[in-house]
Amino acid sequence: MPGSDSGVGSCENVRKQYQFWYFDCRVMSNIRDEDDLKHTRNSLFGALGGTTEENLCARTHARYSLLCLRILLQLRSQSGQHHQTAPFCWAHKLRPDRLTPVWQEKNMKAIDIHAHIPRMPGLPEYGIERGLRRMFRMGGEPDDVAKMVETYRAIDTMAVIFSVDAETETGDLPDPNDYVAETVAAHPDVLMGFGTVDPRKGGAAVEELERSITGLGLRGLKLHPIHQGFFPDDPQFAPLFSKAEELDIPVLMHSGYAAAGANTPGGGGFQLAYSRPIPHVDSLAARHPGLTIIMAHPAWPWIQEQIAVALHKPNVFIDLSGWAPRYIPQELVREAGGRLRKKVLFGSDYPYISPVTWLEQFEQLDIRDEARPLILRDNAAGILGLEGRLKLES
Ligand SMILES: [Zn+2]
Asked: From the CA of 390, how far away is ligand 1's center (Å)?
C-alpha cells in the first residue's frame, strides 16, 4: 500500500527514489532465481533503512512494482517461456543493455554522444582516415583504447563509441560491433556503445542491428549517409528505421559537410547531398515519429534547415560534435541556449576533436547556465534511457 504522495520532491524521498533506480540497474543482471529475488528485496529495504513496502511514497512504490515485474519477466524468459517481441512488450525492457550496470559510484559531469572507437588492432587503416587526420591536424600515432578511456575518466565524462560500416561504398571493413561491445564491457564506468550497419546490405543490415542491440547490448545505431552513400528517406531503407523504432534506440546520423574526400578529385566521390536535413532527415522523422534521430554535427551549410527540423520534430536532436565550439555558427549557439536547449547534445567527434578542448571552449560560449547541464549531460541521459540512474550530487 503506497503512502501519501505529498512527500515527493523532498530530499529524503528523492534520495530513496534514486537509490531504487540505481539499485535497479545493478541488480537486474544478478537475479537468477526466486531466492535471489527474495535476497535482493531484503537488501534493498535494508539499504533504505526503516523503509518498508508499505510506507513508500506512491511514485517510489510504482517504481518498485515495475522493478518486480521486470524481474519476474526476466525469470520467465530465462526459464524458456515465450514472451512476445512486440515493441510494447514489457519484456522488451529486459534487453542486456538495460540490465548491465552503467553508472558507477562517481558523478558523471557529461556524456559525449559522439566518439569514434580507435581502430581494432589488426584491421587496416580506413582509407579516409589519413585525410581526416591531416584535415584535423593530428600528429603522432592514433590513441588506443586505454588512452581513450584515460582521457574520459580524467574529465568525469562518459563516451558513446562506435564505428561506421560503409563497406559497400568504400570497401573499408568496419570495426565489428562485437569489438565495440567488448570494449564497452571492459570499461563500463566510462563507455557506452552504438552499433553500426551498412544500410545497403539490406536485410542483413536489419538483422545485424537487432543482434547488436538485443544480443550485444549496444544502445543505438550510428549511420553516415555520405560515407555509406544512401538517402535516409529513401523508402528502400524504411525496414532498417522501423527496426530501430521497434527496438526503441536512437539513430545518430552524420549531417552537413563531411571532411572525408575534401580536396581530392571529385571529393573522393562523396556526395554531400546525402546529409542534407531537408528533405532527408525531416521526411524520415515524419514517417517514423517514434524514432529518435540525432543529427550529428552543426549541419553546415544547412544550419537553418537543421534548426527548423529540430524545432519542428520532437524526435529530432542535434549533437554539436566535429566543430571546436568557438567555430560553431552563432545562430546554432543561440538556439542551443534557447529554444533548442532540450534538443542539443554535447559531442566531440573524438579523436578528431579532443573532448577536453571541446569542453574548455564550450565554457566560453554565450549560453545560459541553466542550459549547460542539459546540453552536456541530461538531454543525452534522457535519450539513452539513463534518467534516474545518474548519481545525485550530494
Ligand atoms: Zn564523427
From this structure: 26
